Each structure stands twice: as structure tokens, then as C-alpha cells.
Amino acid sequence: MKAAWVLLLALGAAAQARAQARYAVDWSRLEAEMLERFTTLLKIDTSNPPGNETRAAKAVQAMLEREGIAVKLFAADPNRANLVARVKGNGRKRPIALLGHTDVVGVQRERWSVDPFAAIRKGNVIYARGANDDKDHLTAGIMILLLLERLHVKLDRDVILLAEAGEEGSTAVGIDYMVREHWPEIDCEFALAEGGGIVESGGKVQDVIVATTEKTPRRLRLVAHGPAGHGSRPIPQNAVVHLAEAVARVGRWQTPIRLNETTRAYFERLAAISPPDAAARYRDILIPARAAEVDGYFREHEPGHYSILRTSVAPTMLQAGFRQNVIPSQAEATLDVRALPDEDMGRFLAEMKKVIGDAAVTVEPPASAEQRPAAPPSRLDSEMFRALEAVGRRMFHAPTIPSMMTGATDNAELRAKGVQAYGVGEVVDAAKGPLGGAHSDDEHITIQAFTTLVQYMWNAVIEVAASR
Ligand SMILES: [Zn+2]
């Protein structure tokens, strides 16, 4: 029995290695082309708002059509088109979708040392808005489709590129629109998008983070009500005072801890590669009797780890009053709530109301209705996750660590449709953390970090999609 199992494993590994060898790519020869495509896309200003992603979609369209790959554009708003391209397989298995969003967050130009839309190269580093988020994934998707076509890779699955608009806060024109109106065009078993990272320390890859789930943004407003009055006559019902107390209470509230399959595996695997002190904490957080103490440490020193243990609440905006001598009748706070994927929001809200304990303060939904859907984490035993683990071992001799993102991506909408969707990412420095330079001033990426991402994704895609 055991021998048969070992033989099966060996055969599986051999088949996978064969796919990579059969379709060998000379990456050094491709570097100039990859950089050319990457910089072309970085130079298109798709700051969202307003986005104007159609310009980027058209550039991608030209790159693919020039080599005979058919492209379709889908637009809820003509300036904000989404692009879908497909390299066909024999249909024996369901497709893989590669996502790269075409929009970027805006910039404060005066805070940049270079033009954010000129793709300035200094040595081995490219500076541009979108360099980490997300035109690197977009370029990877384009390169993978072109390579599949050029190498005539025999595929068991279609490989789809979805270059979607509106990821940065306007999903109504992007992933929500595609899922609702054009699902057959992107229907797939697996998806690879942003969200992970190849974590390097001192020039050596120590682990590969693959996001299998993410927290769900559930913004809330606290609204305090009271009588308006003259500022010269203080009253106990002052809405500003009631709001301030409520904000302080929810801000200090240590919401309950709950682990899931992803976060459990995350801490276990992180413990295995961490120095003794940290490893002890990552093991202790899994032991209920010791968890509270570690949680206290995370709260002070590791906010990312504090966040993935719970549905978190962070007050972010305050609004009250219009004149210094008027007591306003209403005061309002915005809470950035990030829910665990399986959170029961009704119960959570009831708990929050108890914590606030003030009838003058109501908890209300956000002004904007756009919400990411919640869904179970993607599996750790799927063909795609196993392939990512195998590629991580082969390319970097490093373990793969599943993670739950604190932020949100378009993978949320795909998971809600039952897709096994994974977040992968470029090479990041361990000291900077998993987000790398996304959304920062002087956003930049090293050429090696970018080209390694392309190779990593290519290896995973052919491992899962190429016919054996
Ligand atoms: Zn992004």
C-alpha cells in the first residue's frame, strides 16, 4: 500500500517536471520583451477615479491580437472596459483564469521623486504607480497567454486572461459586472490573482505566501443623536460626547478570536521556519489556554497577525458640527470593519451594540452599497494549491504558506462563485511585509521581483493546465 502511494507520488512529480521541461522557456531572452510590455502598461495613467481603463484594455488587446489571440471587451461604462482573452484547451478539465486589474490607486505627485506614469528605471528598479499593484500580474497574464500560443502548449484546460477595471474601489464596473453579466466568459475552476508574495530575506527566498482567503470589508457608521443647542450651555445629551464615548469603546474592543483552516495552517507553517521566540508564539496562538497572552503581544507588535485572528474594528473618520458655538444634533463616525469570512454579521452587530451600551448611538450601514461577498476559503488540497507548493519547492526550495489577507481583492467575487482562487505575488522583502510597496509613494519593483513572478505563475499554470 505504502509502496504504491510512493510510486504514485513519484509518477505525479515526474509528470509535473515533464510539463515544465517539455515547454522550456529561455527567460533571459524574454526579459526585454517582458519589460517592454510592463512599461507600456505602466505609462498608461489608469488612476481610479476616474480609471479610464479602456486605454489599458486596448493596449493589452493590441499585444494579444498581434499574435493571433482573440480578445473581447466588456464595458458597463465605455471608458472602463474589461478584457477577456482565452487560449483554448481540449476541454477535458475546467479553465484557469489569470487576473490582472488595469486600474491603479491615485498618486500625490508632490510626494513622488519621479513621474509616477513614466516607468522610470534606475538600475534594476522600475518606479511607477501600478508596479506592484497590479500591472505586474497583468503583464504576467499577457506573457503566459503569448507563451502558450507560441509554444503550442497542449492544454487540458482553457487559460483565460481577465484584465478587469475598477478593482480599487469601483468593482461595480469591474469584477461585479463581469460576474453578474458575463459569467460564462470567465467561468473557471481555478484563478490566480494578486495577494501573495515570494518572501525574501538576505537574498534568499524563505517562504512563498499564497492567499487562500481574505477578510471582508463591512464598513459601518456610528451615528449619535441628541438635541441641538447653544454651545454656551452644555447638556448631557450632546451628540459629540456620546459619539466620542462610543468610538472609544469600539476602538478598544478586543473582538473574539477565531481561527480557520487557512490561519491555522499559516501559523503552523510559519512556526516551522521562524526563530525560536516567534515560533513559540505562533505555536501558542493555536493553544486556547495560551492564545490570550500571544494576542496581547500581536496587538502591540504584529497588527497583521492581530487582525487575521478576528473580525476587526478600526474607527477611521469622524464628522460632527458646523459652528464652534452650536451643539450639533448629530455626530457620525466611520468604522472600517474587516470581517472573518464566516462571520455572522447580525450577531456581531448585536455584540457591538452591547459594547457601546448607549441608546443615543445607532449602528448604521455605510453610505455606499458596494460590498465584497463573503465565501469559504479556497482549498489547501486542490490541484492548483499543490502545484503552487511544488513550484515553490522547485524554484526556491521554500515552503508555501497559505494566508488570509486583511485587505480585499477581486478573488472574493470568484470565491463566492465557487472558484478556487489564489493570491500570488512578486518577490517581496521580508522586512517590508506582504504588501510590499503597493499604494505607497514612489511605488517600485525590482526587475528580478517582476520576472520571477512571471516565471512562477507560468510554471504553476502549465503544471495544472498542460496535457500530460
Ligand atoms: Zn490590487
Notes on the protein architecture:
This protein has 468 residues and is α/β, with parallel strands linked by helices. 39% of the residues lie in helices and 21% in strands. It has 15 helices and 22 strands. A hairpin with a 2-residue loop joins strand 10 (197-201) and strand 11 (204-214). Helix 1 (2-22) packs across helix 15 (447-465), helix 2 packs across helix 4 and helix 8 (261-273) packs antiparallel against helix 9. The longest helix has 21 residues, at 2-22. The protein is globular and about 80 Å long. The model has no long low-confidence stretch (mean pLDDT 94). The structure holds zinc ion. The site of zinc ion has 5 residues, from loops.
Q: What is the C-alpha radius of gyration, as a whole number of Å? A: 24 Å
The main β sheet shows up as: 6 strands, mixed
* Tally of contiguous helical segments: 15
Q: What bound compounds does this protein have?
A: zinc ion
Distance between the termini: 25 Å
Query: What overall form do the CA principal axes indicate?
Result: globular
DSSP strand tally? 22
Strand content: 15-25%
Quickly describe the structure.
By secondary structure, this protein is α/β, with parallel strands linked by helices. Helix content is 39%, strand content 21%.
Summarize the helices and strands and which ones pair or pack.
Blueprint: H1 2-22, H2 27-42, E1 47-48, H3 54-65, E2 71-74, E3 82-87, E4 96-99, E5 104-105, E6 120-122, E7 125-127, H4 135-150, E8 159-163, H5 175-181, H6 183-186, E9 190-193, E10 197-201, E11 204-214, E12 216-217, E13 220-225, E14 229-230, H7 239-252, H8 261-273, H9 276-284, H10 288-301, H11 303-308, E15 312-320, E16 326-327, E17 330-339, H12 345-356, E18 361-364, H13 383-396, E19 400-405, H14 411-416, E20 420-423, E21 427-429, E22 444-446, H15 447-465
Parallel strand pairs: 1-5, 4-8, 4-9, 9-20, 10-21, 11-19
Antiparallel strand pairs: 2-3, 3-8, 6-7, 7-22, 10-11, 12-17, 13-17, 13-18, 14-16, 15-17
Helix pairs in contact: 1-15, 2-4, 4-15, 8-9, 13-15
